[in-house]
Amino acid sequence: MTDTAQNHLADTRTGLPLPTEPVFDNVDDTRRHRKQRLAAALRLFGAYGFGEGISGHISVRDPEHHDRFWVNPFGVSFRRVKVRDLILVDEQGRVVSGHHRVNPSAFVIHSAIHRANPGATAAAHGHTVNSRALGALGRLLEPLDQESAAFYQDQVLYDSYEGPSISIEQGLDIAASLGDKRAMLLRHHGLITVGGSVDEAVHWFFTYESAAQVQLLAAAAGDPKPMNHAQASAARDGFGDRQLGWFSFQLLWDEITHEQPDLLEE
């Protein structure tokens, strides 16, 4: 390995040659980039079977109007969403750009999270099978492996349930309970993950869902032994790295845009 390569590796927290999220010169290019990533993330939810009827939504804050967010439209399948279908919603729940309606649950949850946490540029929510099963048990992820350790001391269980999340008060309570954590498991409901980009938030969602499956399988097969604090902390520093989370999504982006290029239609 050359000195240049060694220096490059040393520049990243993980010791990996990771690129960083692109920065654009103007807000229009930034908005287009975020919307393209959002549409791709929704198609990936569809491809991985994360759809559950009208349930589930992913949002990203508008780069110009920070009190507004882009989100998938109500009643459109994850498998069908294109960039042109995305809607922009303001803090009153009005669709200010786009031709579809907003899911009331998407509004109350995502508006509250974006308002409460400036670092949550994007949020992903779904009613996926393994997360729902883990939530039914009232158990958060244990650090059973490196991937699950990404959420060590960075997740919260939301134990309150009052029916579908369609009230402003419930959305505010969810956001307050989430705080600055990267993941929330909602008992009787589903999973929420957040990040500094769509890429990061969705990567955490995929990781949490698969880690939930590992935990359920391990518990069904025997008596799994979690990492100790030192081990879990070391694994979290690597697998929970935000830059690694962002970069990991790029592989999924390449796959879905190659397979389904129509998603980028504006």
UniProtKB/TrEMBL annotation:
<feature type="domain" description="Class II aldolase/adducin N-terminal">
    <location>
        <begin position="36"/>
        <end position="216"/>
    </location>
</feature>
<dbReference type="InterPro" id="IPR036409">
    <property type="entry name" value="Aldolase_II/adducin_N_sf"/>
</dbReference>
<protein>
    <submittedName>
        <fullName>Ribulose-5-phosphate 4-epimerase/fuculose-1-phosphate aldolase</fullName>
    </submittedName>
</protein>
<dbReference type="GO" id="GO:0051015">
    <property type="term" value="F:actin filament binding"/>
</dbReference>
<dbReference type="InterPro" id="IPR051017">
    <property type="entry name" value="Aldolase-II_Adducin_sf"/>
</dbReference>
<feature type="region of interest" description="Disordered">
    <location>
        <begin position="1"/>
        <end position="23"/>
    </location>
</feature>
<dbReference type="Pfam" id="PF00596">
    <property type="entry name" value="Aldolase_II"/>
</dbReference>
<dbReference type="GO" id="GO:0005856">
    <property type="term" value="C:cytoskeleton"/>
</dbReference>
<comment type="similarity">
    <text>Belongs to the aldolase class II family.</text>
</comment>
<dbReference type="InterPro" id="IPR001303">
    <property type="entry name" value="Aldolase_II/adducin_N"/>
</dbReference>
